[in-house]
Amino acid sequence: MPDAVTTPRVVACRQRRRRRRVPQAALLLAPSFLIVSIFVYVFIAYTVGVALSSNWKPGKADFSTTDPLYANFDALINNGRFQADLRNTVVFTLFFLTLSVVAGFFLAVLVHNLLWARGFFRGLFLLPYALSFIATGVVWRWLFNPESGINLLLRTSGVSSAYQHLTGHALQPDWTSSPVVVGDVSSLLERIIPGGHIIQVQLGIPLALVAVVLAASWQLMGFAMAMFLAGLASIPEDVREASMIDGASGPRYYVSVVIPLLRPFALTTVVILTHVALKMFDLIYAMSGSGIGFATDMPGIFVYETMFKALQYNIGAAASLVMLVLVTLVVVPYLARRGPQETA
Amino acid sequence: MSALATTSRRVARRRRKAPPAHVRHGRHARRWQFALLILMVPFFAAPFYVMITAAFKTPAHADVLTMWQLPHPLSFDGIREAWSKLSPNFVNSVIMVVPATVISSLIGSFNGYLLSKFTFRLSNLMFTLMLVGMFIPYQSILIPMVKFLQFVGLYGTIPGLILVHVVYGIPITTLIFRNYYVSIPRALVEAASIDGAGIVRTYRSVILPVSIPGFVVAGIFQFTNIWNDFLFGLVVIPNPTIQPVTAALNNLSGTQTVNWNVVMAGALIAALPTGLAYLGLGRFFVQGLTSGSVK
């Protein structure tokens, strides 16, 4: 049967047909391509115009530029709130990424090795990912209420009093309402970096972000786990047996066999979770808002409030482009590297 | 063909039966790992526990200082009050999510077919350029998007919201379907083309009938994304009565006069559709995650 289809005449005919169809397929893809391109690239170009203009308003599309051209970005970088947002983004992304990826990997290994109840654990760990950030954010808001939630649990379980006994301090974390920033390096930076004096915020780790990192990891750890589970399932049994024979068992097997094989899955997970972290908006908006001293503020919240509450479109547009650049730096190299070579 | 299928099935069965080698070796390790997993359960379950128990408490019993107690007596007052406040927005979400999911899946399916079965000049570049659309922070397109929607007269309306979700859904659905159609042999398409069917005809009569699993995967993925969206709902529709349920829940949560257990009941209501879809179709949801991540 297959032989009959691959006679030279048929092959030639098939090639001719395929060649003839090529422009037609492109033509059929064109409407989608065009509308997505408009909604992505033309819209971004428009936002660039707004970010460079001095007086763009919704009623009057005035694109006369600022002098100097980067004036809105200059205002942005001198804005204390936006400085706090950039600090928070860096701190949040690092901690959230580490916690989600590392814990997600361990969860995947544990779940993969289960002989029963695999579906239950996988189902439970991934369930938060299916839910709206607003719904979970609202719940976390109450769990991190200093009077209730987790603190109540600490108190009634005796952890609080045991802690007080040992250290002499009460264990009553303020969670998202904490204004404390630890490990401030801004005064150090001011001394070593020229122009460091523009820094208006404490460059350290805002303790309020701990709660936000926990909530976000709770929601997205399951995603990392699912990706690693897919990776683990792709490792053939022979590989495991071969490494057993070679004497790589237990932790050795994971370190020298599994982790290298899972690298592509880890890369995808890291890229996707990083871009989620850089865009973080709904969860924090519902959970804590901007926090005290903007301790839990994020660029996403800044842009929304600057554009649609304060109606400072130019500054908001400039801030949104900073977000775009950050995401682009992570995603575009990844897409360029992975995209082309694998076509069906 | 059938012999091959049975063998592979047998192999699969054998593989499933045999526990991983190191698990076989370490009964001790297995117990230890299981205990670790059990320890993770409270962390993952606590928010659900609080949300669900609070939703069924009486207003008198809904004290934040007794947050962890079970509801006693059981009461539907919280659910009833939350529903009376959220139901119009819940309906808005349904009106938004169904067409947006169906249309974006259909378009993605057709695009995925084109991109997986025909390679033409620039097809990869076009695809990659489209994929960028699923990663951009939407904050960076909000201003022109609102201007555009005002221009076409859809600003502040649910159809406007549907349009936005469809367009920004095209990259991900295209990706999911392209990865799905890779498993469908090209010979099937070629056979149809030898029989004289055009590209569109081949799609309708050959590809579409075998696409149901792909539609389930893309559909549940889009349903979840669009239902859970907050930013577009907030920006495209300023009028709170037309907003989707996520925006309404956020407003409810910010209302000082509403008891916290009503907010929990509201969170439960807003989370239920995607939660149930996930519990029922979890397998396809996971497929969407893994095939929706660029490969």
Question: How many DSSP E strands of chain A?
Answer: 2
The side-by-side strand order for the widest beta sheet of chain A comes to 1-2
Count of separate DSSP helical elements of chain A: 16
Distance between the termini of chain B: 29 Å
Any idea of the CATH class of the largest domain in chain A?
A: Mainly Alpha
Largest beta-sheet details of chain B: none
Query: Largest contact between protein chains?
Result: A-B, 114 and 115 residues
The percent range for strand residues of chain A is: under 5%
The number of domains of chain A is 2
Low-confidence stretches of chain B: 1-14
Distance between the termini of chain A: 23 Å
What do you see in this structure?
The complex is a heterodimer of chains A (344) and B (295). By secondary structure, chain A is mainly alpha-helical. Chain A folds into 2 domains: 51 residues, no CATH class; 225 residues, MetI-like fold (Orthogonal Bundle), CATH 1.10.3720.10. Chain A is 69% helix and 1% strand. Chain A is built from 16 helices and 2 strands. A two-stranded antiparallel sheet of chain A has the order 1-2. In chain A, helix 5 crosses helix 10 and helix 13 packs antiparallel against helix 16. With 295 residues, chain B is mainly alpha-helical. Chain B is built from 13 helices and no strands. The interface between A and B is large, with 114 and 115 residues.
